[in-house]
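Re: guanosine-5'-monophosphate structure - here you go.
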Amino acid sequence: MSTPKTEADCLFCRIVAGDVPAEVVHATERTVAFRDINAQAPTHVLVVPRDHYADAAELAAGDPEATAELVRTAAAVATAEGHPDDYRLVFNTGAGAGQTVFHTHLHVLAGRDLAWPPG
Ligand code: 5GP
Ligand code: ZN
């Protein structure tokens, strides 16, 4: 098995490792899903790869299977939360687009009307 890619000062690496507490709702071989600490919808879960990649494009280039697993996990979370057909998936990429944690994370939002375009 390859060595996991982690960064010591990365918040989401620390959550994956269990060093920072989080409400984990789903876990797979390559992903962990936990509730966002500042929920923007009744369901607001972050799905992250266990390995550290800074953003979605880096993950897709470095680990396509984990990228697909992120989306499959997101769908499983939405279904488990009672929203199998109506949910939003978001990758904020870059500070100018609202990314604040530079470990790839897929937001799963559901449980209320979601306006378009987003703010
Ligand atoms: P971004 O703004 O990078 O797209 O999303 C980062 C998300 O991480 C935000 O929605 C923020 O509320 C969430 N977040 C920040 N710190 C923590 C934390 O310590 N625990 C959890 N569960 N979520 C966090
Ligand atoms: Zn990380």
